[in-house]
Amino acid sequence: MSDAEDVITRAHHEEWARVVAALTRRFGDLDIAEEAAAEAFATAVERWPADGVPPNPGAWLTTTANRKAIDRIRRENKRDDKHKEAQMVYDNDPPEPVGAVDDDRLRLIFTCCHPALAMEARLALTLRMVGGLTVPEIARAFLVAETAMERRITRAKAKIKAARIPYRVPAVEDLPARVSGVLAVLYLVFNEGYLATGPATDPLRHGLTAEAIRLTRLIRALMPGDGEVAGLLALMLLTEARRTARISAGGELVALDEQDRGAWDTGLIAEGHRLVRERLAAAAAGAAPGRYQILAAINAVHTSARDIRDTDWSQVLALYDQLVRLDPSPIIALNRAIAVAELDGPRVALAAVDRLEDKLAGYHAYHATRADLLRRQGHSQQSRAAYDKAIELAGNTAETAYLTRRRDQLR
Fold first, then answer.
1. Boundaries of each RNA polymerase sigma factor 70 region 4 type domain copy (predicted)?
2. Which of 98, 108, 299, 369 sits in a 20 to 30 Å window from 37, CA-based?
3. Does a structural domain hold residue 317?
4. CA-to-CA distance for 49 and 31, rounded, in angstroms?
5. Is residue 377 one of the residues assigned to a domain?
6. Which range has the top average pLDDT, 30-44, 115-129, 337-351?
7. Is 397 a domain residue?
8. What is the tally of structural domains in the chain?
9. Contact (CB, 8 A) for 157 and 108
10. If pLDDT is split at 50, 70 and 90, which confidence band does 198 have?
């Protein structure tokens, strides 16, 4: 990859949300914002390798996208309100939207996560508009067909336009009713950055994890007493702390039991543990923990162990038991089975995993977990078949390399 191509890739990860948010703020139309941003990046792909990378790539992309948006508006001759059109084209300093925080990307998230949209539409739209994920990447995250995801995003944008959903952060009194959808989106954005689903992307996309953490910090500043906001921030920090240890020099995923714990970020771990302790104190005072708080507590147990052998698996399993009652999803059940394997053995865990086949047959981690449990029982042929299926379904290059090595070790 040339230097210009590398900069364009990095700029897409780091600047997409800023460009889309700035255009949405100015023109008030997600379609215009997305199309103009995409055209600006396409222009960069064409020009930067020949003309050189501009000194400020983000400013160049925003300026170019603004021009593309204006050109599109001028080409459209069927708008009813010509005065408003002229104002959008020539007004360089539109009034500030009213909101609790002056941050374009946070406004964009709350717009995409409006309660008028179905939860699945909120998640998909925000991953596209804020996270900059492609439709195939989002479809993989939801385990649905790309065409279905494309329709979902298109319908969501159309509904925002038809319902005239405002582009702003909600008033303080409205935040509690709006925040759950936003947290779910930020968690998915973070997960895509922490272990990207696409085969053509970097295995780790630090720009996405950093942005998810930044925006979660903003929401925590808005809602300092909300337990789930604190829980999600703690979960992200404790997960991000292990990022550099998760990929080997050869580009292979490094499983938790093989990671160099000395490479973990102790500052992030300390901050995450502090947040978890705060939420544990609140729970002791009668505040029932939510999903993100329990997931953060599980990660706190893992990051407290100096060696994988020191992990308190009974505590991990107890937390998963608590989580299953709140979120009885098959993926949570799959993760719980991994803890069961450490306490009750792979045979008991495999029985629990096999009960999830109907719901997780298209999920690569289901087959990877089965492969490992079968391997631990000495069932090499069945384990190999499960690894083959996991490799077939995995999109991340680092994960594919790890699964391939584990499968080949069976020989």
1. 109-160
2. 98
3. no
4. 28
5. yes
6. 337-351
7. yes
8. 1
9. no
10. low
